Amino acid sequence: MSKLIVTGGTHLEGSISVSGAKNAVLPIIAASLLSPEPLRIDDAPQLLDVDVMCQVIGSFGSQVKREGSQLFINTPEITSIQAPHELVSKMRASIVTMGPILARTGHVRISHPGGCAIGSRPINWHLKGLEALGAEVKMDHGFLDVSASVLKGTRIYLDFPSVGATENIMMAAAGAEGTTLIENAAQEPEIVDLANFINQIGGKVRGAGTSVIHIEGVSSFHSANHTVIPDRIEAGSYLLMAAAAGGDVFVQNVIADHLNPVLAKMEEAGIHFQEEDDGIRVYSEGSYNAVDIKTQVHPGFPTDLQAPFLSLLCKAKGTGMVTETVFENRFMHVDELKRMGADIKIEGRSAIVQGVDVLNGAPVCATDLRAGAALILAALIAEGETEISGVHHIDRGYEGIEHKLTKIGAKIRRVD
Asked: Which of 54, 116, 314, 365 is catalytic?
C-alpha cells in the first residue's frame, strides 16, 4: 500500500491546475449508456472511481477507450443488465447506472453500492422516483431487480434534494414516454453538467440547477462530444491548502461561481484572493481568523470541503465551529488531526476548533476521500514530517495530487 510523506512548513508558489469534476464525469459516463452511438468525453480525470465506472458500464456492454484525458465510449447494444457485485461494491456512484439501463432496456439488476464510510446514504429516494415512473422494484438475493414494460413521465417530489436520486431519475425520464417534473431536485453544478450532456445526445432537459427540473422523454439518442466542468471540490481543496500554508498560488481552471460559499468564508477569515480569468489567485501569509461554517446542500457550504476547512481552522486565530448537517459520520478525521496536536472537541454534529500555534507531523490515516485532503492540508502546515496512509481513498478523487502540489513547492512524495 502507498503512503504520502509530507514535510511541512514551506510556502507555496506558482500555478496548479484543476482536473475535470469527478462528481460530474461519473453520472455522465453512466448516461452514455442511453446512446447506441459513439461518444467522446473530454477532461475526464484519471481517477480510481472513473476507472471503476468505466468497468461498470463495460460490464453492460460498453466499449471504453481512454486517450489521455479523453474517454471514447460506444455502446451499440446492451449485452447484460447486471453489473458484477465486486465492481458495484467498490463505488457508490455505480447506482446511477440504474436509470439509463432501465430507460434503454426496461430491466436492470444491481447490488447495493459501496463508497466512503461517511454515514448513511439511503437509496430509497432513487427507488421511489423510478417506481413513480412505472418501474417495479424487487429484492432478489442481495440484488435490486428493477423492471418496467414502459416508463411514463410523471411529477416526482423528492423528500430530500439527493444528487444521486436526481441524476438517476433524470436519466430514466430522459428515455421515458411523456414529460417528467422533478421537484425539490438537487441543484449542484454537476447536475447541470449532466443535463447538458443529456441534451447534447438528443435529450430534452430544462431547469437543471434549479429546484424544478423538466424532462421531456425522447425515443432515441445520438453521438456527441462533451467537456466535463472543472472539479469545484478539488479547486476548493487547493485554495484552502494555499491559504493555510501561505504564499502566492494561482488555482487554474476554476468556475468561481461554483465556490461562492467557500470564497465567502475565506473572505470572512481574512484570507486574500482574487478572481481572474480561468482561475483564482490566493495571497496568504498563513495567518487568518477563525470562522464558523455549516454544511448544507447546494448552494450552501459543500460537505465535501468541510474536512479541509476544519484542518484550516486548526491554526486559525480564535475558535471556530464546524457543523455538519449532510452526513452524520463525517468527523472521522478529527482523531487523526488530534494526533498532530489539534485542539478539537466534538459536540453532536458540531466540531469546536480552537486554533493552536503549532501542529506536529505524525503518522495518520485517511479514513475517506475528503479526510485525506484534510490531512494533506494539516501536514503542509505542520512542523516536521507527516506520514499519511489510506492513500487509496485520496486517489479516488484527486488526480496526481502529489505531482501537482510538488510543482508549487510542497514537499510531498509517495512511497510504497
From this structure: 116
